[in-house]
Amino acid sequence: MTGEATASPAPVRILLCDDHVVVRAGLLALLGSEPDIEVVGEAGSGEEAVVLAARLTPDVVLMDLQLGAGIDGVEATRRIAADGTVHVLVLTTYDTDADITRAIEAGATGYLLKAERPEELFAAIRSAAQGRTTLSAPVASRVMARMRSPRPSLTDRERDILAQLSRGLGNRDIARALFISEATVKTHLGRIYDKLGVDTRAGAVSVAKEQRLLP
């Protein structure tokens, strides 16, 4: 009897999202060298990535974080990962605590830095396709350090301001809600940023949620 040929596994289907055409071209050429990885689409913006992910249903979206005008990579990740059918692997140059936290909270399966070797990228893609988490070594170190560090101690007033911040209020509205001046709000925000290790309002809210500092 003639044995049946074993069918090759289907390739991992990839959607690239990066606002730099040259970067996408480089990734396309790089990924094209792997027989078990197939790029099925390219997006130059967060909005385009969301639309293409719904239309093409790739296994993995390679997502940059900074995408110019429009929604950023974190918001695109949140929308794409919402239904749980498409995995998002962040591929970026940014490794701040705030960026990492926001991306993971948005539903990213993995977080890789563009400085990684091609072999690491290929392995991360295959892991992401199976729903397994992959983090670049520097990112994993930052995550572990954050987990080991004690929760920052915020004053009652700082917690009040953080709670208003999580509602999306601006400095003026926060000042009115808490019956304090805008200058006082700015002072407290500066202290909150320092304690949480962030430099943006979104980063402060994200870290506060992660560390359960909000009521």
Topology:
Blueprint: E1 12-17, H1 21-31, E2 37-43, H2 46-56, E3 60-63, H3 73-81, E4 87-92, H4 97-106, E5 110-113, H5 118-129, H6 137-148, H7 156-166, H8 171-178, H9 182-196, H10 201-210
Parallel strand pairs: 1-2, 1-3, 3-4, 4-5
Helix pairs in contact: 2-3, 3-4, 4-10, 7-8, 7-9, 7-10, 8-9
Keywords: DNA-binding, Phosphoprotein, Transcription, Transcription regulation
InterPro entries: CheY-like_superfamily, NreC/VraR/RcsB-like_REC, Sig_transdc_resp-reg_C-effctor, Sig_transdc_resp-reg_receiver, Tscrpt_reg_LuxR_C, WalR-like
Domain Response regulatory: 13-129
Shape: elongated
Structural class: alpha/beta
- What order do the SSEs take from the amino end to the carboxyl end, as H and E? EHEHEHEHEHHHHHH
Percentage of residues in DSSP E strands: 5-15%
Radius of gyration: 20 Å
Across the major sheet, the strand order is 2-1-3-4-5
Largest sheet: 5 strands, parallel
Number of helices: 10
Number of strands: 5
Percent of residues in helical segments? 40-55%
**pLDDT < 50 stretches:** none
Domain Response regulatory: 13-129
Keywords: DNA-binding, Phosphoprotein, Transcription, Transcription regulation
InterPro entries: CheY-like_superfamily, NreC/VraR/RcsB-like_REC, Sig_transdc_resp-reg_C-effctor, Sig_transdc_resp-reg_receiver, Tscrpt_reg_LuxR_C, WalR-like
Pfam family, one: Response_reg
